[in-house]
Amino acid sequence: MPATRILVCWIGNTDLKAAEGKGDVGLGPIAQAVQARQFDSIVLLCDHSKDVAATYKKWLTGFTQSAIEVRQHRLPAPTDFGEIYRAATDVLAGLREAHGANVELTFHLSPGTPAMAAVWILLAKTRFPAELIESSREQGVRTAQVPFDISAEFIPDLLRRSDERMARLAQGVADEAPEFAAIIHRSPQMKRVIEQAQRVAIRSVPVLIEGESGTGKELLARAIHTASPRAGKPFITVNCGAIPSELVESEFFGHKKGAFTGAGADRAGHFEQASGGTLFLDEIGELPKPVQVKLLRALQEGEIVRVGDSAPRKVDVRIIAATNRSLTKEVAVGNFREDLFFRLAVAILKLPPIRARSGDLSLLIDRLMSRINSEAAKDGKPFNKKISASAKNIMLEHVWPGNVRELQNTLYRATVSSDEEAISAATMKDSILDLGPAEGQHDTILDRPIEEGVDLQGLIAEVARHYLSRALSAAHGNKAQATRILGLPNYQTLTNWMKRYGISN
Q1: At 163, is the secondary structure helix, strand, or coil?
Q2: How far apart are CA 281 and CA 148, in angstroms?
Q3: Which of 44, 128, 193, 335 could in theory staple to 330 by disulfide, Cβ–Cβ 3.0 to 4.6 A?
Q4: Do 423 and 391 meet the contact criterion of CB atoms below 8 Å apart?
Q5: 3-state secondary structure string, 35-56?
Q6: With pLDDT > 70 as the criterion, what percentage of the chain qualifies?
Q7: Which pLDDT score, from 0 to 100, does residue 160 have?
Q8: 71: buried, middle or exposed (CB in 10 Å: 19+, 13-18, 0-12)?
Q9: Would you call 305 helix, strand, or coil by DSSP?
Q10: pLDDT tier at 156, thresholds 50, 70, 90
């Protein structure tokens, strides 16, 4: 049995003008489509009155033998994406129920508002596969070739002006919320992390952030909180490794007056302080196991008991935990409770180290240096400290086992140590501390982890910059000699490579 061909679209203002004979609009997009294509059924969504819809339906019957059905749905506004989406999905779900898989859907993008067109695109590429068509007086009716990764150019300019976020959603790309702007990045590795964090932020589920020291776990946690419905409520940070073991329970859950020596008054703990907001537990792996049990109960029951008290207190807290350890390994050796781990690890975000963030290092250096200059200006010491090309090359060759924290502190150290406007290579060498390899650090570029993907071009650039700089240093700046060291065919090739990879001499 052949499939039932159904055209689905909104009735637009141009279509209504065509039916009324107003203006020089021709037949309008819908009539033009039904004249050019054969459909078994036409389903029209209408945001106008029943009388207007009936008049248009009657007029359209003069152009087609197809059955015409009008579905009324009054919108709060013709650009209300939520209502447009609900109206469209209700209609399409009904058609699927009526016809099953034996239906060929066509969505007309031209009638209606840009918001309606964007919703049709999203639905056609996700829940309800369909052909997308568009029409114009100049080019007639044609299939809209829209790949899954819809180009921004296809979305009308009006849509981009009125709702940039929806335009990006229509591309299949999540717009980076402004709450994450402080996280400096351009690498695909970090983009994936931030996309995951944005999705997690809107739900009050526990989050576990894993990453080496200095990768920015607290910064990411704050961004998640700020992007969540709990924004504006408390964000309480607790370093689990910095609390004396005898005070951990009191710090977390509070205490009653007289509960122990020194408890001179009732005190609310971190859970009560964070109620309604977010409690960020940094270095959660350092928690003693007895406190882990009580933390698990607080998460499961949504209540705590102060030390020295017997009455439970209700708390509404979202937990974001962070660790530079592998909690799965800690569970395996018995240092961390398995049930607590699974309670915390509802959403897991893994922050990559700098050495795995292809292309981010140069951007981080520039942004942090700019920040240092701005801070100095606020202190009444205006200067514009720069990093020489040779100093930056040294930084690009370093693996930064301490990650962003080490990078920032090195820049502060070099800035203070340098009397010149541009930080020299010698100053930079003296400012970088040899901390030894970080946990999980790989000895060669060939051993980089690939689980989260790699930027091959970035790795090639890293190797090129490294050996170009070394060759020029070994040749004391003599380009002809550096050319021979690198095995390049001629002097001009070396010059081109230096230009390509930002190496100056």
Answers
A1: coil
A2: 40
A3: 335
A4: yes
A5: HHCCCCEEEEEECCCHHHHHHH
A6: 88
A7: 37
A8: middle
A9: coil
A10: very low
Helix ranges, 61-201 (H): 81-99, 114-124, 157-162, 164-170, 188-201
Distance in angstroms (rounded) separating the CA atoms of residues 36 and 395: 64
Q: How many residues appear in the chain?
A: 505
Q: Cα-flanking dihedrals φ and ψ of residue 277, to 5°?
A: -120, -140
Per-residue tokens: 255: 């205490």
Judge residue 254's burial from the number of C-beta atoms within 10 Å of its C-beta, 0-12 exposed, 13-18 middle, 19 or more buried: buried
**Residue 302: burial class (beta carbons within 10 Å; 0-12, 13-18, 19+):** middle
Closest CA to 57 of 65, 68, 48, 66: 68
Is the pLDDT at 1 greater than 70? The verdict is: no
Q: What's the CA gap between 312 and 320, in Å, rounded?
A: 23
List C-alpha distances in Å: 36 to 21, 135, 179, 282.
20, 10, 48, 64
- For the stretch 19-77, pLDDT in tens is 988 767 788 999 999 998 999 999 999 999 899 999 999 999 999 989 999 999 888 88
CA angle, corner 230, sides to 224 and 234, nearest 5? 95
Two tokens, residue 18: 């065509």
Contact, 468 vs 497, CB < 8 A? yes
Beta bridge partners of 69: 43
What's the token pair of residue 8? 């689905």
**151-159: long-range pairs with CB below 8 Å, 24+:** 154/121, 155/114, 155/117, 155/118, 156/114, 156/117, 158/114, 159/114, 159/115, 159/117, 159/118
pLDDT > 90? residue 209: yes
292 CB-near residues (< 8 Å, 6+ apart): 336, 337, 340
Distance, in Å, from the CA atom of 249 to the CA atom of 258, rounded to the nearest integer, reads 15
One-character DSSP codes across 310-352 = -S-EE---EEEEEESS-HHHHHHTTSS-HHHHHHHTTEEEEPP
Asked if 216 contacts 222 with a C-beta cutoff of 8 angstroms, the reply is no
Instruction: Pick the closest to residue 12 from 83, 106, 115 (CA basis).
Output: 115
pLDDT band at 169 (very low <50, low <70, confident <90, very high): very low
Query: Roughly what angle, to the nearest 10 degrees, separates helices 50-60 and 13-20?
Result: 70
pLDDT over 90, % of the chain: 34
Task: Provide φ and ψ at 301, rounded to 5°.
Answer: -95, -15
Residue 106's φ and ψ, nearest 5 degrees, are -130, 125
H or E, element range at 370: helix 360-378
Q: Give which of 87, 123, 85, 95 is closest to 107, Cα–Cα.
A: 123
Please state whether the predicted TM-score (pTM) of the whole model is above 0.85: no
Closest CA to 291 of 274, 312, 271: 271
